[in-house]
């Protein structure tokens, strides 16, 4: 384990989560000074400390200590992309396209928009969202306006305004969705 790399990864996650050294120190019962030493490679975190930090940032502890075999790249082949979230209350099914959401502020997935989900309430979230219709056709209800998007069409919008996808096709529609965190 290279303590400089571990410290750099901790700092990366702390900054990504808009957290100060003092905030992190308070959550894991350390001093700000000790967090600074860890981030600068002047102190090695204990496994207990590393475990707490991993839990706070919702990443596997191994991410801090194991060299990524892809050197900063996440490749997910179609045959390995079987971690599909079950259909949710909106009538959507999500297929995660990257298994390293802790590496970046974007989260790509393929959303399958099922038939019969026309009377659902729009929702909001804190992220910007980019969508690209892979197949089929959807109506994007956004801020009480309706937009028809066909295969090949795309949209970029703030998730802070109410929105929902409604399928316009006889078959299920597929939409590439990328959430962009601030």
TrEMBL record:
Where the record annotates domain HTH cro/C1-type, the positions are 10-64
Instruction: Report which superkingdom the organism of origin falls in.
Output: Bacteria
* UniProt keyword annotation of Metal-binding present: no
What's the short name of a Pfam family annotated to this entry? HTH_3
State one molecular function term (GO). DNA-binding transcription factor activity
Any GO CC annotation of this UniProt entry: cytosol
Keywords, A to Z, come to: DNA-binding
Which CDD domains does this entry report, sorted A to Z? cupin_XRE_C, HTH_XRE
SUPFAM superfamilies assigned? lambda repressor-like DNA-binding domains, RmlC-like cupins
Could you identify this protein by its name? HTH cro/C1-type domain-containing protein
Show the taxonomic lineage: Bacteria, Bacillati, Bacillota, Bacilli, Bacillales
């Amino acid at each position: 384990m290279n303590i400089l790399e571990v410290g750099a990864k901790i700092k990366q996650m702390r900054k990504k989560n808009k957290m100060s050294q003092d905030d992190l120190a308070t959550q894991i019962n350390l001093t700000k000074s000790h967090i600074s030493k860890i981030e600068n490679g002047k102190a090695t975190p204990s496994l207990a400390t590393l475990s707490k930090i991993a839990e706070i940032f919702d990443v596997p502890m191994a991410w801090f200590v194991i060299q990524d075999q892809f050197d900063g790249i996440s490749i997910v082949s179609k045959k390995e992309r079987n971690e599909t979230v079950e259909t949710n209350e909106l009538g959507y099914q999500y297929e995660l396209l990257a298994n390293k959401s802790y590496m970046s502020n974007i989260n790509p997935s393929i959303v399958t928009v099922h038939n019969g989900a026309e009377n659902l309430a729009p929702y909001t979230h804190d992220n910007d969202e980019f969508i690209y219709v892979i197949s089929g056709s959807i109506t994007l209800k956004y801020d009480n306006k309706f937009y028809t998007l066909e295969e090949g069409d795309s949209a970029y919008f703030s998730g802070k305004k109410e929105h929902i996808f409604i399928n316009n096709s006889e078959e299920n529609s597929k939409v590439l969705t990328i959430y962009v965190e601030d």
